[in-house]
Amino acid sequence: MQSIFTQNGKETPDPVKAQVKGCVPSWLQGTLLRNGPGLFSMGDTEYNHWFDGMSLIHSFTFKDGEVFYRSKFLKSHSYKKNIKAGRIIVSEFGTMIYPDPCKNIFSRAVTHLCNIFPNFTDNNLINIVRYGQDYYASSEINYMNQIDPFTLETVGRVNYRNHIAINLATAHPHYDDDGNTYNMGTAIMGLGPPKYVIFKVPTGASDPEQKKPALQMVQQVGSLPFRSTLFPSYFHSFGMTENFIVFVEQPFKLDIVKLATAYLRGINWGSCLKFDKDDITLFHLINRRTGKRVSTQFYGDALVVFHHINAYEADGHVVFDLITYKDSNLYNMFYMKNLRLNTSSFTESNANSSPPLCQRFVLPLNVSKETPKGVNLVTLEDTTAKAIMKDDGAIHCEPDPLFEGLELPNINYKFNAKKYRYFYGSRVDWSPQPNKIIKFDTVTRTHAEWQQDNCYPSEPVFVASPGAVDEDDGVILSSVISLDSNISPFMLVLNAKTFVELARAAIPASVHLDLHGHYIPTVN
Question: I want to staple 509 with a disulfide (CB 3.0 to 4.6 A). Which of 12, 138, 227, 372 is the partner?
Fold first, then answer.
């Protein structure tokens, strides 16, 4: 089938003015940065997986009711090596490029085992993150590429390991009210036992003359040992409340030995992930200030999670909302061969895959030796989630289902780590192609939606109105693409409260489907 995923994207290096229909609010002044894979073939070579494509950075600038668009490929080392060679020569997560066959097997093995993590690609295609006043294209490895958020030029590559001992890090950090950035990483090779690491990057000095990047001031908040030394949990994001980091140690695991020998086995890195359906999921709470883990063991049934929605504390409980799956087949859906299937074949091939399910978990904090066993310890009245202490003192958590079929969640970030009511996301129905934008009300358990035939919206981004009091007082921004040649790609602006369309800005250029991004308000 014709797919929004499989076509190569194109750069628009100079800003182009969009044609606005409707009215973009005059108060909306800023730049929305977006990131995602955009180049899938070079010369006679092509990637096997959509998440392997070379990063394409987009910007949508809102100024005085007008919208301007530009895009540039991230000029990573991987991109430049591939372009120079005229073909793909750098391995990605789902595409393994094998060493020179002229080298003997011993030389290849030693070279790879000694450089397994340093030689990961720096193709940062997932998100745009902020550390201090600096912006980076980010993925889940130890490299990031700093970008100029306004020209989209690639400033240069940085290595987390020059600042903190981690091999992998998430592309979904959290920001507190003071502008500090919190993130999590995995330390597999280095001094000390392997562990999960929580770290904080201060917002940065107020002196504009100081050139010291904020990453140089990184602070380790705390750490957790792996449950299984050779099989750490994969994690794409985490939760944060006023006092805690929420870490889900899921039974979707990375096989370290298999990863280290991937070249020799003739497999890609993606195949080194395995879901153990017979294992449990552990929920960890780590104090943001002391770095100490809450000693109570909270656990649930096996699940797979990529995106956290939000987390907060309420009346002696930690509440956190996740998008969960019953299996790990989501990654397999994005192999290019699957994305090229016709609709009926695609649906049939994924009929046994679980849909995304938004679920609420609740962890009681006031637990002691006297806590009764076998009864629900959740006393909140607005949820059906359960937490039941077992005979061994561990607490089994049962979720409260919220909504099925939503991914790429977003909230009014002013309510991050706080009690909130609304979240937004892209609706997916048995296909990875997003076909609706959803607003979900966690109180009434109802939803609103935006949809247009043959249109595919990106992750919705909430921007609050100036002086807003209501949580949903603001707009939703989403770039929309179509396979219909009569529909130009456009930036959609919705009233977040009513979900009525305020404006759409048709873009006279190629726009490719993206993943995640970051909104930067204009500072007057």
Answer: 12
Q: Name the β-bridge partners of 517.
A: 34
The CA–CA distances, whole Å, from 82 to 85, 98, 203 equal 5, 14, 35
The Cα 303–Cα 72 span in angstroms is 37
Q: Name the nearest CA neighbour of 33 among 437, 522, 519.
A: 519
Strands (DSSP E) found in 86-212: 127-131, 134-138, 143-147, 154-159, 168-169, 174-175, 181-187, 195-201
pLDDT band per the 50, 70, 90 thresholds, residue 262: confident
**pLDDT at 431 (0 to 100):** 61
Q: Are 349 and 342 in contact (CB under 8 A)?
A: no
Residue spans of alpha helices (H) in 369-416: none
Q: CA 238 to CA 197: how far, in whole Å? A: 12
- Residue 387 tokens read as 């937490």
- Minimal CA–CA distance to 296: which of 210, 390, 215? 390
| Angle, CA of 243, 317 and 370, to the nearest 5° | 115
Contact 404, 380 (CB under 8 A): no
Scanning the structure block, which residue is given the tokens 């005059």?
A: 26
Residue-wise pLDDT for 198-232, tens only, equals 999 999 754 556 667 889 999 999 999 999 888 99
Residue 159: φ, ψ to 5°: -120, 120
**Burial letters for 440-458: b for 16+ Cβ neighbours within 10 Å, e otherwise?**
bebeeeebbebebeebbbb
Residue 501 has pLDDT above 70, yes or no: yes
pLDDT for residue 107 is more than 80: no
Tokens for 402? 């919220």
Largest CA distance in the chain: 68
- 126-129's contacts with Cβ under 8 Å and 24+ in sequence apart are 126/35, 126/36, 126/171, 126/515, 126/516, 127/35, 127/171, 127/172, 127/515, 127/516, 127/517, 127/518, 128/33, 128/34, 128/35, 128/57, 128/516, 128/517, 128/518, 129/171, 129/173, 129/181, 129/183, 129/518
Tokens of 35: 């990131």
Residues 6+ apart with CB under 8 A from 255: 230, 231, 272, 273, 274
Cβ 396 vs Cβ 452: under 8 Å: no
Measured in whole angstroms, how far is the alpha carbon of residue 65 from the centre of its chain? 30
Distance, in Å, from the CA atom of 255 to the CA atom of 244, rounded to the nearest integer, reads: 28
Instruction: Supply the DSSP symbol for 98.
Output: P
Beta 239-240 vs 219-225: how paired, if at all?
Answer: unpaired
Three-state DSSP at 439 gives strand
User: What integer pLDDT is reported at residue 352 of this predicted model?
Assistant: 60
Query: Given the DSSP bridges, would you call strands 474-482 and 490-495 parallel, antiparallel or unpaired?
Result: antiparallel
CA distance 353 to 520: 37
Residue with tokens 């726009």: 511
